[in-house]
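Review form for a predicted model. The reviewer records the input and the model, then writes brief findings.
Reviewer: anonymous (R2)
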Amino acid sequence: MDMTAMTRRKAVGLGLAGAAALGAGAANAAATPFFKRTSLPLGLQLYTLGADLRTDLEGQLAKVAAAGYRTVEMAGYLGRTPKDLRAAFDKAGLACPSAHVQAKSSATDPGFDALDRLIADARVIGWSHIVLPSFPTPGHIAPKTAQESYPDYAGRLVSQFTADDWKGIADLLNAKGKALKAVGLTMGYHNHNFEMAPVSDAKGSTGLDLLLKNSDPALVSFEMDVGWVVAGGGDPFAILKSHPRRFTQMHVKDVLATTKTNYAFQQDPIEVGSGTIPWPRLLPAAYAAGVRGFFVEQEAPYARPRLEAVKISADYLLGVVA
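Model under review:
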C-alpha cells in the first residue's frame, strides 16, 4: 500500500472535516443572540421607570431583573442613601456599574462639584463609571425662563453656544476625568440631540465633534444615546467608525420614523426593536468600536405601562441575532 498516498488522503479528509467544523461553528456563532454571544449583560437606565421607582424601588427592581436585565444605571438617588440603594440592587440581583450625575449638586443629590462624596458613594454602590448626562449651561447664556417652551429655549441655546463653550465643557470633563482616574474610576459624557447641531463659529463642526476633539481619550469616554443621535440627524455608524474606542457605553433607544431632525430635545420614542434603528447591524458595530455597556432607555410619552415597555425592549434585545 502507498503509505504516502494514504497519509495524503487522511490529511485531506481531516482538512475537509476541520473546514466543515469551522463553517458550522461560524454559522452557530452567527445565529447566536448578540448578548449571549458577547457575554455582556443587558442594562437599564433607571430614568426610564419614572416616578414609580421612588415609591416602589424594590418591587420595580425585581420586575426589571425578571425581564432579563442584569445591570442598571442610576439617574439620581431616588431619596435613598447609597447603602440603601446598594441593598436594593443586591436584593434584586442587579449590579449598578454606572451613574448619571449632574455638574452641580442639588438639594438632594451630589454633583460633580462634590467629587469626594461621589467617590465615596461609588465605593458603596459599586459604580466604576460616572457620566455627565448633559452640558452645564455656560454663564453667558441665560437659563430657561418660565415663559419659554423647551423648543424655544433650545433654539436660543443653539444660536448662542460657541466653540469656546464646548471647549470649556471638554476642559471640565478632562479635569473631573483626571481626578476620577486617580482613584480607579472613569469619566463619561452622554449626548442629547443638541450636540448634533453645527456650531456657528466652528466651521461646520458639531458640539459632539468639539467635545471629542478637545477631551483627552485617556481621561474621558462617551456614552452614545442612539435615539438622540438619530433625532439630531446624526449617523451612529459613522460616528462610531470615526472615533473607535471613544464610546464605551450606549443608550439603546429607538425612535419612530415620524421623528424629525431637530436640536430641541424632541423625538417620537418607541420600544427597542419597534422603531427605525437597525439594531442587528448597530449592536455589532458598537461592539467593534469598543462599546461594552449597553443600557436600554426610553423617553416619554409611553404607549403602555413603563415596565411593560421595558420588558418588550428586553425580549427583543435578548433574542436579537447580531
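Findings: The beta strands are 42-45, 71-74, 95-100, 129-132, 186-190, 220-225, 247-252, 254-255, 269-270, 293-296.
Further findings: The two ends are 51 Å apart (CA to CA).
Recommendation: see findings above.
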